[in-house]
Specification:
It is built from two helices and eight strands, in the order βαββββαβββ. The chain is α/β, with parallel strands linked by helices and about 120 residues long. A four-stranded mixed β-sheet has the order 1-4-3-2, covered by helices on one side. Strands 5-8-7-6 form a four-stranded mixed β-sheet, with helices on one face.
Length: about 120
């Protein structure tokens, strides 16, 4: 088995550019309606909404309740890199009681991206 996830978003191309630029994702498939990327050993897809061939459940964009988590080795360096790139930090770098150290940004489609080092 292999797990990969997808999100229905308004702008798959903007998502592609964000994850390639900030996480070094590789593009596996690229079209105006769907983008599939590598991310941290897995794959993440971005699907454009409202396409006639889609089942109804895949026609509406994600509006809340979804996030992407990216586990990194050096969260401090990633935090500085995002700050230097001018990316808005939604949740500043912090340590959690359960041992994680992380920060959160949003991708261009508004999806929260939790950049984390598990403790």
């Amino acid at each position: 088995m292999k797990l990969w996830s997808g999100l229905v978003v308004k702008d798959p191309t903007a998502a592609r550019d964000f994850y390639v630029s900030h996480f070094g994702s590789e593009v596996l498939f690229d079209s105006d309606w769907f983008v599939l990327l590598t991310l941290g050993g897995g794959e993440l897809g971005f699907l454009k909404p409202d396409q006639a061939a889609q089942a109804p459940m895949f026609r509406q964009t994600v509006t809340s309740g979804a996030w992407v988590a990216v586990d990194v080795d050096d969260v401090n360096a990633q935090y500085q890199r995002f700050r230097d790139a001018g990316v808005d930090i939604e949740v500043p770098l912090r340590d959690e009681p359960w041992g994680d150290r992380h920060f959160v940004v949003r991708d261009p489609n508004g999806i929260p991206v939790d950049v984390v080092r598990h403790g």
